[in-house]
Amino acid sequence: MIRFLTRRRGGARADWTDWFSWAYLALGVLVMFGPVLWLVLSSFKTQSALQEFPPSLWPMGQKQVAVPGSDRPLPVFSLPQPDGTSVERVMIRRVGLEGQFIDPADPARHVERARLANVTPVREMHFAIENYIEPLRQFNFARFLGNSLFVTIVATAITLLINAMCAFALSKYEFPGRNGIFLFIISTLMIPITVVLVPAFLIVTGLGLGNSLWGVILPPAATPTGVFLLRQYMLTIPDELMDAARMDHASEWRLFWRIILPLAAPALAVLAIFSVVWRWNDFLWPLIVLNRQENFTLQLGLAAFQGELQTQWHYLLAMTVVTLLPVTLVFAFLQKYITTGIASSGMK
Amino acid sequence: MITTLARLIDAPFDALQRRFGAARMPYVFVAPNLLVFGIFVAAPMILNVWYAITGGTQFMPADRPYVGASNFAELLDCTNHFIPATCKQDRFWRAVANTSWFVAFQVIGLVAISLLTALILNRRMPWRGFFRAVFFYPVLLSPVVVALIWKWILQPDGVLNAIVVGSGGARVPFLLDPGWAFSWTIVVSIWAHMGFYTLILLAGLQAIPADLYEAAEMDGTPHVRVFWRITLPLLMPNMLVVLVLALIRAVQSFDEIFVLTGGGPGTATQYIVQYIYETAFANQTHILGLAATASMLVGGVLLVLTLLQLAASARARGEAGR
């Protein structure tokens, strides 16, 4: 067994670097995935289970069963018997320090009495699904979710369209000012939003986009990295295709829309994935533009909710899971595009 | 339906071409992008300078009185620049000091851990794709999600304290003690971003010719020597890019930390972008001039770093081309 585990390609025995690598990777899985897993497990705990210290790994709650004669499920306790064993009984009533219990398998039998100090609650795995439902009903989370979806989808569509148009012109035409325009676009990389917060907010307000989702969508819609990525890809598409279409009197727009754009689909897909992740996760810019709750995105809603209601962790954790879900799905299915996108353009 | 929609879009652009001629169509194509850049990036850049040299609490640029360099003077007014309490704008200098320490520790930790991870992921082994994905996953999480995940772990009754108490220690106020809170902002920010840098370094490692390693293996060169003599020198261009990119991003750290600690306890984890945000937007009086001036100073630092990055990546391309 040991021989098998330490075997390597080429027949050489494992040395210290192999052991170190495996230990590091095991630790890595724990540290990188552990916190997220803990969040997901915790999000299914009831409010009282969340207050336990030390916390249990799995979401546990007191076992409850429905018995005839009661309109809601009743808690189950473990009652010690004289012979040292214990049995599970349902508490139907509490009288002072004593409880009245019945056998859930045989509810018609006589009522047993026991002191509460002697019985222990029976615990079982219990998933508090209501953590996910209540915030959507009681608080504005359904609204936040809708706003986030709107911003993400519309902004990504706009980003793809205008960046592809720009990249098309820069890669397929010779025109005066082309290099200047390209340099200008690339140089805006050096101006992150953090440097122009105040005046950018002024302009958005001046255009009447303050406190509107369009104020969140438009300013970051033109991305220098997106133009760059698409331009590099379109440069590899042969111009002959366009010349052939020109013979058939296709307009310049149709060359772009019918010929180049479909051929640039792989690069568009990479940009789309990035745009979805950027927009879904965006925080600082929406924080400045939006200040009325009904316009909040999910990220703002979460941040506001955690500031206001410190104790409502059961709702907060569940909504955090909802927020990380789309990105996790994108990651699970499209990981390859993301990693090649980063390796080829250095964008994030 | 989609073809109808496509035709609907065709019409206005065909009309534009009839109006301006085919030779001017490239300008039509670049127009929307340039418009967005011009309005939301270039114009703010110029307006920012105006905000920095005017004073008062008025929001409209025309209403603001010209004050010359007095915003700069106020921000930089200190008896001793190393002791924030002696400064007129002590919150600014505290943020500068905090950010400097944060950037120093975060960038060193980030680059070191990313390098180690990339080296390990570059080895031939089973499940390599899975492990690469594991380290990359947090990069995609939103800053708010990252902050809440860690806030939940680090709270007084959290799982980390359960482990500390379980192994016989006393509860630690991870986010309530200035020193601990500062350290955790570094750890959390490394946790969230290391996957990105690991990926870039991994791409660099995979570009190193394998025959160099085979030759070293034949000579029986020890691993450590191989690392110092082959891997590190050949990876240097990528290391430089990663270093500068990490610096640029670290200076701008805001969201995760803002949600995790809110800048507290006190001002222990208040960094420069939070200072700008709060001075301009969150305070009762919006001191836009100071915020704009501070952004210009940050912009200056970032500009220097970006030029360094361009130089570094030009060098990286040059080395790769050789």
Task: Provide structural commentary.
The complex is a heterodimer of chains A (348) and B (322). With 348 residues, chain A is an alpha+beta fold. Chain A has three domains: 2-43; 61-125, Roll (SH3 type barrels); 132-345, MetI-like (MetI-like fold, Orthogonal Bundle). Chain A has 15 helices and eight strands. Chain A has helices at 2-5, 16-43, 47-50, 130-138, 141-172, 178-187, 197-206, 213-217, 224-235, 240-247, 252-263, 265-281, 284-289, 298-308, 313-345; strands spanning 60-62, 64-65, 74-80, 86-95, 98-102, 112-115, 120-121, 123-125. In chain A, the strands form two sheets. In chain A, strands 2, 3, 4, 5, 6 and 7 form a six-stranded antiparallel sheet that branches. Chain A has a two-stranded antiparallel sheet with strand order 1-8. In chain A, a hairpin with an 8-residue loop joins β2 (64-65) and β3. In chain A, α4 packs across α15, α5 packs antiparallel against α12 (265-281) and α12 packs antiparallel against α15 (313-345). Chain A is elongated and about 95 Å long. Chain A starts with a helix and ends with a helix. In chain A, 36% of the residues are buried. Chain B is mainly alpha-helical and 322 residues long. Chain B has two domains: 2-52, no CATH class; 81-321, MetI-like (MetI-like fold). Chain B has 13 helices and no strands. Chain B has helices at residues 2-20, 25-52, 70-76, 90-121, 128-140, 143-154, 159-166, 178-206, 210-218, 223-251, 255-260, 272-282, 288-321. Chains A and B meet through α2, α5, α6, α7 and α11 of A and α1, α2, α4, α5 and α6 of B.
